Amino acid sequence: MKGHLAVLGFLVLCSALAVVYTKFRSRYLFTQIGTVELAISNYQVDWDKLQLERSTLAAPGRIEGVARGKLGFVFPKREEIVYLDIGSSDRKKN
After folding, report:
1. Are 36 and 42 in contact (CB under 8 A)?
2. Alpha helices (H) in 1-94, listed in sequence order
3. Distance separating alpha carbons of residues 40 and 32, to the nearest angstrom
């Protein structure tokens, strides 16, 4: 009888330790989830800023301003425009 009681007491002790460990692990993982969610939120803010910057840099008016100002581009005069005939007769027809 005492042997059964000792085994039962040992099993109760093991069960209690498992509950404590599980509770600790649960709290630890909960804090890890919070940390990861905060990092995701920060990355989302950075991504939104980059998207805004990209759309600002790709604006046609800005590109034209950079082309004219920094690169010295100008619109060609009418007589400087060359048209190419893409559908020329040089192509082989099947």
Report:
1. no
2. 2-57, 60-69
3. 12
Q: What is the pTM of this model?
A: 0.56
> Are 39 and 33 within 8 A, CB to CB?
no
19-46 burial code (b ≥16 CB/10 A, e <16): eeeeeeeeeeeeeeeeeeeeeeeeeeee
CA gyration radius, the chain: 36
Q: How far apart are CA 20 and CA 26, in angstroms?
A: 10
Using one digit for the tens of pLDDT, what is the confidence trace for 13-68? Answer: 999 999 999 999 999 999 999 999 999 999 999 999 999 999 999 999 999 999 99
What are 18's two structure tokens? 């498992």
